[in-house]
Specification:
With about 325 residues, the chain is an alpha/beta fold. Helix content is about 45%, strand content about 20%. The protein is built from ten helices and 13 strands. It has an eight-stranded parallel beta barrel. Helix 1 (about 25-40) runs parallel beside helix 9 and helix 8 (about 250-260) runs antiparallel to helix 10 (about 305-315). The longest helix has 25 residues, at about 275-300. It is globular, with a radius of gyration of 20 Å.
Length: about 325
């Protein structure tokens, strides 16, 4: 099974600053890191700047211009930009990159104006995301203008003349654990970003997500990504919703095997921002995991045997 690795930037120490700064703080330095990330075995990089969506779009454009194969995962929120405007901007970015853009839809509360007209709650937030994604996909694929009047959005003559190379098939990434979130993800997501938990908890979440996707005939179209935080031995645990691992590269690679055996096809690596860390993870951890997976799949093609064997090796290594 092919395994992909995604770099999730955090904060790093700037040479001229006394404190940690965002990964994209200095784009001259970032360009060098992007090249290293691309050459080290990572396939994707997440853009999720605290400055918000418009900054994310600018960073994504720069990252796409400075790389040749790296997929840029652009973090996006419904409601910040109107669907028709967002569809044009995202399609232009996708076309500019030759199809290397994916959209990571996160949930967030409705703003104060929305709160005055309708109750704000978890279900409402996901209903808006659902309508937003329906409109994005329709705008990415329609061959003539259309009108739309929905619970959250109104569009007159909606049309995006410059479609991206994938049309409505731009990869959509989502998260969530509730039934409501999974129903929306089951309808729209190509990749579900999983929450941290035990192997059994993650397996159950994957089963629920597949069932939700199956309701829309998409059970086989949903892939799974697991956030993994790699921290230095003895380091302080961060407040990240990610599986946390530490130790030598071989131990980290071995620890990821049971998750891969569940059917997870992507690991989102957090906590690796310095050049030497990026190079080490690429040269050692990524290479070791891929080699181990290839060997174990050849030796134990039955998924159950693979899980049992990988779990036993992790316990032995620990």
């Amino acid at each position: 099974m092919p395994i992909e690795f995604t770099h999730v930037p955090g904060k790093t120490q700037a040479a001229d600053a006394g404190s940690a700064v965002p990964f994209f703080y200095d784009f001259v330095e970032t360009a060098t890191k992007l090249s290293l990330i691309e050459d080290s075995g990572f396939q994707k990089i997440v853009v999720d700047d605290q400055a918000g969506l418009l900054t994310n779009m600018d960073i994504a454009a720069q990252a796409l211009d400075r790389t040749s194969s790296l997929e840029v995962v652009l973090t996006h929120w419904a409601g910040v930009v109107a669907p028709a405007v967002a569809a044009r901007q995202l399609a232009a970015l996708d076309a500019r990159s030759g199809g290397r853009l994916s959209v990571r839809m996160l949930s967030e509360p409705l703003d104060d104006d929305d709160a005055e007209t309708r109750p704000v709650g978890h279900t409402v937030v996901w209903q808006r995301i659902d309508e937003y994604l329906v409109l994005l996909k329709r705008l990415w694929s329609n061959d003539k203008p259309f009108d739309h009047e929905g619970a959250f959005y109104s569009i007159k003559g909606g049309y995006v003349p410059r479609k991206g190379p994938h049309g409505a098939d731009i990869t959509v990434r989502m998260g969530g654990q509730s039934g409501t979130a999974l129903r929306v993800a089951g309808r729209h997501a190509n990749v579900l970003e999983l929450a941290a938990g035990s192997l059994d908890e993650i397996r159950q979440l994957m089963e629920r997500a597949r069932a939700a996707a199956a309701e829309h005939g998409r059970a086989g179209k949903l892939r799974f990504a697991l956030p993994v935080r790699i921290r230095a031995e003895g380091g302080v645990s961060g407040a990240h919703k990610a599986v946390e691992l530490s130790g030598p590269p071989a131990h980290i690679a071995l620890s990821l095997l049971p998750y891969a055996a569940l059917g997870i096809s992507e690991f989102m690596i957090v906590g690796v921002d310095r050049p030497r860390e990026i190079a080490s993870v690429g040269r050692e951890t990524i290479a070791l995991l891929r080699n181990s997976l290839a060997r174990r799949e050849a030796e134990a093609p039955q998924p159950g045997a693979f899980v049992a064997r990988a779990g036993a090796e992790v316990r032995a290594a620990g």
